[in-house]
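[recover] target loaded
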């Protein structure tokens, strides 16, 4: 399977963002003939404050039902080009009185929704320059993992900040993931230091392909200009970056090779080693617990006989 990671410079105008995504996807399809394209995190909106995000939000249908403008665009592109389309993430309306959700969607070449994932780890941090980010002020957190078969590959779904939580990626590997999607809006400050090294680490740990489409460039947020890092990339299960975008809008394409996955996992069977060590650790813990319990019983018996220290007091 060939996958193209699409790098956008979206803003707060939803219609303009959809038009930009269409141009980039069509360019990638014409040039590289991918079997799947993947878009960045919240590609329908970046910046503009709460009001812009609310305007961009869509109520997602039941699978098979008609959705909003972005949802139907993703289905249309999948059908038109006969490809799998991973819609990065879009802003999901949570219902009246509820928070929004940062939600990832995957469609097959017939436009059928294959998977839906709500971002679990929300970006509530203070950047090195003192800029605060509080995703939880507007978004609710997801509670379920997502892993699905598409195009002969088993894909795990994550979003951006999830990449800092290795246990989530390990859980996806345990669910059978061979490749993991990581659509992102990574800040410039954190991106230049952490973006590539984290994605390569997640690939090495899980022995999965990592496909991370990211937003790039400047956007406006409540009167201030912010920057996102870009550098969309694909990493193989050995941790090599096999495709990468430079600065600017565009795409990078790589082939997901199952033979590489199989070879890495055969030669370094870390999942089996981890399982074996867990069993050993549990057995050791049980032995310690049994020993402690025996000692407690002995101490109680001694206390009853009155020959323990301070016995009878």
């Amino acid at each position: 399977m060939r996958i193209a990671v699409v790098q956008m410079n979206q803003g707060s105008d939803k219609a303009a963002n959809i038009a930009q995504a269409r141009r980039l996807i069509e360019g990638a399809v014409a040039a590289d003939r991918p079997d799947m394209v993947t878009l960045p995190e919240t590609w329908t909106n970046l910046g503009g404050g709460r009001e812009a995000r609310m305007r961009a939000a869509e109520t997602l249908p039941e699978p098979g039902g008609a959705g909003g403008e972005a949802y139907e665009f993703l289905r249309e592109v999948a059908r038109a080009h006969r490809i799998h389309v991973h819609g990065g993430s879009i802003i999901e309306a949570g219902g009246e009185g509820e928070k929004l959700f940062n939600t990832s969607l995957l469609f097959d070449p017939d436009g059928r929704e294959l998977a839906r994932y709500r971002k679990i780890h929300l970006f509530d941090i203070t950047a090195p320059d003192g800029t605060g980010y509080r995703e939880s002020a507007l978004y609710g957190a997801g509670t379920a993992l997502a892993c699905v078969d598409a195009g002969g590959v088993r894909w795990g779904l994550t979003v951006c900040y999830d990449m800092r939580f290795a246990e989530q990626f390990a859980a996806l590997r345990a669910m059978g993931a061979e490749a993991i999607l990581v659509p992102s809006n990574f800040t410039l400050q954190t991106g230049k230091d952490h973006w590539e090294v984290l994605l390569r680490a997640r690939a090495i740990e899980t022995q999965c392909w990592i496909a991370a489409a990211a937003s790039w460039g400047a956007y406006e947020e409540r009167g201030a200009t912010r920057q996102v890092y870009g550098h969309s990339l694909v990493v193989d299960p050995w941790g090599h970056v096999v495709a990468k975008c430079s600065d600017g809008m565009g795409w990078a394409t790589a082939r997901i090779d199952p033979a590489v996955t199989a070879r890495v996992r055969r030669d370094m069977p870390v999942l089996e080693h981890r399982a074996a060590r867990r069993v050993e650790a549990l057995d050791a813990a049980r032995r310690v617990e049994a020993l402690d319990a025996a000692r407690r019983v002995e101490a109680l018996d001694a206390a009853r006989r009155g020959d323990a220290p301070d016995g009878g007091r």
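[recover] notes: The first helix runs from residue 14 to 32.
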